[in-house]
Design brief:
The structure holds 2 protein chains of 2 kinds. Chain A contains no helices and 10 strands. By secondary structure, chain A is an all-beta fold. Chain A is globular. The mean pLDDT of chain A is 96. Chain B is an all-beta fold. In chain B, the strands form 2 sheets. In chain B, strands 2, 4, 5, 6, 9, 10 and 11 form a 7-stranded mixed sheet that branches. In chain B, strands 1-3-8-7 form a 4-stranded antiparallel sheet, with no helix packed on it. Chain B has no helices and 11 strands. Classes of the chains: A mainly beta, B mainly beta. Chains A and B meet through strand 4 and strand 5 of A and strand 5, strand 9 and strand 10 of B.
């Protein structure tokens, strides 16, 4: 199975901060990397797919990029509704493994 | 409205069986990649089972031989038969649809989830 190393596991940030979350894969997965946001008690919601494509309806402050086996989710200016847990997920091989998650908390 | 609604969760004793169902509306289940994903309390997400649009199925090693995924075209639903349940199967089970972007499958539609608790 492809291993996903997501970091950090948690972070504290303030409204307006720039937030960066990283996901490193154990092997090349091309751009088959997706990012999800999950709020407590809710189902996940896709933010970014294929490493850098913004899902329809998702604010443009979210962006994704890739460099080899390193993938990055950036929130350019954190908003109150962005406090949540974020997961990366690869679909290059079955099973489509998820990263361990990054909990973004209010500083 | 395009949505997924899960049902069938509950409290079950170890070794027991449970059948989850996911009713789809606004699209056709048998034309899409459909999955079950679970999340243990306070933990991350894990892909349990996948029903490919072409009829192939996939199971995580942890559930292989115990869980069976199926589609019911008459109900436009996805089911998950879970047998020989264990404590580590306790989780919220989500039904999810995958979109395909150049071979990359990503979950573009999720249900609200149904809680399965395995305990004596």
């Amino acid at each position: 199975d492809i291993q996903m190393t997501q970091s950090p596991s948690s972070l504290s940030a303030s409204v307006g901060d720039r937030v960066t979350i990283t996901c490193r894969t154990s092997q090349s997965i091309r751009n088959y990397l997706n990012w999800y946001q999950q709020k407590p008690g809710k189902a996940p919601k896709v933010l970014i797919y294929s490493a850098s494509i913004l899902q329809s309806g998702v604010p443009s402050r979210f962006s994704g990029s890739a460099s080899g086996t390193d993938f990055t989710l950036i929130i350019s200016s954190l908003q109150p509704e962005d406090f949540a847990t974020y997961y990366c997920q690869q679909s290059y091989s079955t099973p489509g493994t998820f990263g361990g998650g990054t909990k973004v908390e209010i500083k | 409205e395009v949505q997924l609604v899960e049902s069938g969760g509950g409290l079950i004793q170890p070794g027991g069986s449970l059948r989850l169902s996911c009713a789809a509306s606004g699209f056709t289940v048998n034309s899409n990649y459909m999955s079950w994903v679970r999340q243990a309390p306070g933990k991350g997400l894990n892909w349990v089972s996948l029903f490919y649009a072409d009829g192939r199925t996939y199971y995580a090693d942890s559930v292989k031989g115990r869980f069976t995924i199926s589609r019911d075209n008459s109900r436009n639903a996805l089911d998950l038969q879970m047998n020989s349940l264990r404590g580590d199967d306790t989780a919220v089970y989500y039904c999810a649809r995958s979109a395909d972007h150049g071979g990359n499958l990503y979950f573009d539609l999720w249900g609200r989830g149904t809680l399965v608790t395995v305990s004596s």
